[in-house]
Amino acid sequence: MVALEACIFVTVIIGFLGLIYKSNVFMKIIAMDVMGTGVIAYYCLIASRTGFLTPIVTSQESTIPYADPVPQAVILTAIVIGLSIQALMLVATMKLARENPTLEVKAIEKQYWP
């Protein structure tokens, strides 16, 4: 469990460092996606528990502990929002690529700086 947490933490750190140190816009988007995937993986790791059943309504009374469906809904929402944000950033990158010969941040800033 500790090794898995460490791997997820390293994934988040790699995404964060890529976001800071990469100068290409496309690579920054990929680094942001890696960081978001690490955060979602960490949340799934924390929320996972053994011995809990799926909350299915039956006619029998039961004292078996059921899993909470709210974390699952939060994770699905985070995945959908992350995908839509990534698609929006890629569309903006395509628009930048049509107007600029390069996707380097410094060159784009130099061109649009007054």
Automatic annotation (TrEMBL):
Instruction: Please indicate which superkingdom the organism of origin belongs to.
Output: Bacteria
Q: Where are the transmembrane segments?
A: 6-27, 39-58, 70-92
Gene Ontology CC: plasma membrane
GO MF entries: sodium:proton antiporter activity
Keywords of this entry = Cell membrane, Membrane, Transmembrane, Transmembrane helix
Which Gene3D superfamilies would you find in this protein's record?
Answer: 1.10.287.3510
Database matches in Pfam families: Oxidored_q2
UniProt record, GO biological process: sodium ion transmembrane transport
What is the annotated localization of this protein?
A: Cell membrane
Report how it sits in the membrane. Multi-pass membrane protein
> Principal localization?
membrane
Q: Which NCBIfam families match?
A: PRK07375.1-5
| Family membership noted in the UniProt record | Belongs to the CPA3 antiporters (TC 2.A.63) subunit C family.
Protein name, UniProt field: Slr2006 protein
